[in-house]
Amino acid sequence: MQVQVLLFGAERKAAGRDLAVVSLPGSRTCLDLRERLAAEVPALAPHLASARFAVNGAFVPLSHTLEERDEIALIGPVSGG
Question: Which of 29, 31, 38, 67 can bridge 45 by disulfide, Cβ–Cβ 3.0-4.6 Å?
Fold first, then answer.
């Protein structure tokens, strides 16, 4: 299965693009996706420990199973006030 991951902020800047396309053979959890992103887009590796995945507009745990048509975003820590 191939998924597209939307990138924002520091993650977008590190990757040099706003979208990462990743192949997920076999298991399809967010944890699997995180590992594939680290391997296929090495510039994202330092960001992945503190970033979270949002799937279809909601934050999900790393155990969440991804489906073919999910909208996936990688959201890094944000601050403001």
Answer: 38
